[in-house]
Amino acid sequence: MNVVVVESPAKAKTINKYLGSDYTVLASYGHIRDLPSKDGSVKPDEDFAMDYQNDAKSAKHIKAIADALKGAENLYLATDPDREGEAIAWHVMKVMEEKKKLKDAKVSRVVFNEITKKAVLDGIANPRELDMNLVNAQQARRALDYLVGFTLSPVLWRKLPGAKSAGRVQSVALRLICERELEIEAFKAEEYWTIDADFLNDKKSKITARLTYLDDKKLDKFSLPDEATAKAAAEKVRAGTFHVQSVTKKPAKRNPSPPFTTSTLQQEASRKLGFGAKRTMMVAQKLYEGFDVGGETAGLITYMRTDGVTLANEAIHACRDVIAAEYGPEFVPGSPRAYKTKSKNAQEAHEAIRPTDLSRTPAQAARYLDQEHLKLYELIWKRTIASQMESAQMERTTIDFQDGAGQTLRATGSVVRFAGFLKLYEEGQDDTKDDEGGKRLPAVSEGETMSTEIVREDQHFTEPAPRYSEASLVKKLEELGIGRPSTYASIISVLQDRDYVVLDQKRFKPEDKGQLVTAFLSSFFTRYVEYDFTAQLEERLDDISDAKIDWKQVLRDFWSDFSLSVDGTAELRVTDVLEELNRVLGPHVFPEVEEGKDPRACTKCEDGRLSLKTGRFGAFIGCSNYPECRFTRQLGAANSENGSSDVDDGPKELGIDPATELMITLRKGPYGPYLQLGEPEPKKKPKRVSIPKDMPLEDIDFEMAVQLMALPREIGPHPETGTMITAGLGRYGPYVECDKKYGKLTSGMEVLTVGMNRAVELLAAAKTRGGAGRAAPPLRVVGKHPDDEADINVKDGRYGPYVTHGGINATIPKGSDPMTITLEEAVKLLADRAAKSGKKPKLAKKTAAKKTTAKKAPAKKKAPAKKKAPAKKKTVESDD
Known about the structure:
Blueprint: E1 2-6, H1 9-19, E2 23-27, E3 33-34, E4 42-43, E5 49-50, E6 53-54, H2 59-68, E7 74-77, H3 83-98, E8 106-109, H4 117-125, H5 132-159, H6 170-186, E9 191-200, E10 206-214, E11 217-218, H7 227-239, E12 242-254, H8 262-273, H9 277-289, E13 291-293, E14 296-298, H10 313-327, H11 362-365, H12 371-387, E15 392-402, E16 408-418, E17 449-461, H13 470-480, H14 488-497, E18 501-504, E19 507-510, H15 512-524, H16 531-545, H17 551-567, H18 574-584, H19 586-589, E20 610-615, E21 618-623, E22 632-633, H20 645-649, E23 652-656, E24 663-669, E25 672-677, E26 687-690, H21 702-709, E27 713-717, E28 724-730, E29 733-738, E30 741-744, H22 750-753, H23 756-764, E31 780-784, E32 791-797, E33 800-805, E34 808-811, H24 823-837, H25 844-861
Parallel strand pairs: 1-2, 1-7, 7-8
Antiparallel strand pairs: 3-6, 4-5, 9-10, 9-17, 10-11, 10-16, 12-15, 12-17, 13-14, 15-16, 18-19, 20-21, 21-22, 23-24, 24-25, 25-26, 27-28, 28-29, 29-30, 31-32, 32-33, 33-34
Helix pairs in contact: 3-5, 5-16, 5-17, 6-15, 8-12, 8-13, 9-12, 9-14, 15-18
């Protein structure tokens, strides 16, 4: 008997079919042990001894592996083919050794880059020993992350109240986002103008050209700085008679992009499909683990965590065969294309991400895949095939027009002479690329006279660099050599979960909390958020993998300096920290006011000075004369005459509500400012309305307060059903509602202004909730539970989406998309919840048997119906 251990149950099920009855394939469900989340799990004083602890959630998986090893001849560790997979295999081996289950079994490491029958059988036939260099590289990374997190985070908590955590890589990624935001805030737009003219030849063909020389002087971007200068230049163009001075045609060639790595897949899926990094990896994981294809489960893509851009020889030949068959032999280059990665710290141990069977086109795969998985498969298939196609042949044309008086205008265009790979695929554009698309220019001859149809002077302003999108952030991290591509999705999730950044219109915007953390680390732990230092540390981790350096030495070198930096903050006072942050974040925290005025001067008292303060709910702006002056202002809010001082001093009366003749007051509570109607009465609480965070307090006047107190407001009857649509403020923010369907509004102000068209649009995309007395329909059926083949459903509950099966409800983690959660993930969530609660799921078969017995019992005793004991109500524990 042979035991094979993989990471996921889906993988186990597929591989078991390939190997047959002589093999027992089990899943470890990821790591079965890890460092406990408590101080002291890594011990620098004991040469970085690490106290691993078996995960309580993995107890049944450990037992299953241990039981299977009784009498087994071989233990094949077939976890994923990377550092993390190597470490999981090592942990499985160590736990089995501790349990003394490996006395008679030979331990071997098996790797395969794709889950196909051929790849699995080849892997089993060619096992190797565990690679301790890879294991130690992962141990070093885990220890470093642990030491930074458990040493630096407490410093943050003491010196910067409200901050949640710091991390070795997450803090550097946060710095990128915050620095970009400060650049945008400090950016001063510059005005410039351009002159364009539309020329017509004798054949009435129109060509648009731009002024490049004025009075024989070459123009740069800011040569026409204002309207007067631009109009004067335009008049000279209008007055001239232009002819074609030169026509230049140059051939050009565009080569295809290499096949996908983890990083480029995340970037392109973001640009073309709108998938976040985490969603991309979840969908890719399922494609890798496999689908039922024609009655046999098979992985559809190769391993999706890779830095390599190479393809196996058989894959290259398969690509060339597909290209010839689908597009013609002229699209097949004379020799196969070879690629070399340009990313920093790349490990090319694996192939690029590609389909396992290149002949399986997206049209064929559509029979087996849902839309989400098909979109990503099609993206991977097209990119792989295109990478081996012929280059695109272009022709770039430049036409210069002159008037003989010193004015020259230039028109440029490009024509695709042979599409090559562009027939199939073109890489999406990001923030760093200019659009290379061109236009075809009509044929003209040198010396030909042109008539001027229209001359335009256009005003422009320079723009700051855009905020990072997921694609551009991943690209920047990879360029700098920070983190590993397989970790980018988790880095981004952590930043959002910590409320350090928010994704606004698909761009990352730092919250004030994130800006404060970055400013603190940049000021007092400068070296550890430097891009070069973090990248160099990644290189040293790679050196461990390559056996160039001892992993403990890397930890010693890091800790000797890092611990001194932490110790150096022991005497640092919170007031010193805040004053340094005042300096670093000055333009952000204290925006400019009227010329000649100090932006830090208190607007309420005469001699007070504004400064960052910390409180129970985080940082805010306050006056140095507190408590005599109680001026306060939320971080990020514009400076105002009164700030929120009126609220701090006590309830602020706004006016008498015309509907109830009760006073509306503005107050401040432990969870933020709110409006109150009247005063409390015996056994009756007054109506209260929380003020949305995006509504500045200075904007809350009597008129707006009346509107907020009147919520929910009626928008009008739904045009299809006639049911009234309302808008209001709820526990989870502003919304529109109609017939138990809710649509989320984007801002608090929108609840007062949203109209019928917008409301109907939001409701059309909304999820239906169940009303009183009836269960809400599931948002989605994930699949059949392997224990009883009953459906696992995704539902939306009071506290968010959850999966449910057999009376067990498990909350879907924040940041995970309930519409893309896989069957394996759902099964694991339910198992973890059951283990934590101590409850056993009610399996469908057992329940059915029990009901049958109960039904026959009354007939046997012939008891009258009225004497039956009433059925007990079932109580189901829920996470929803």
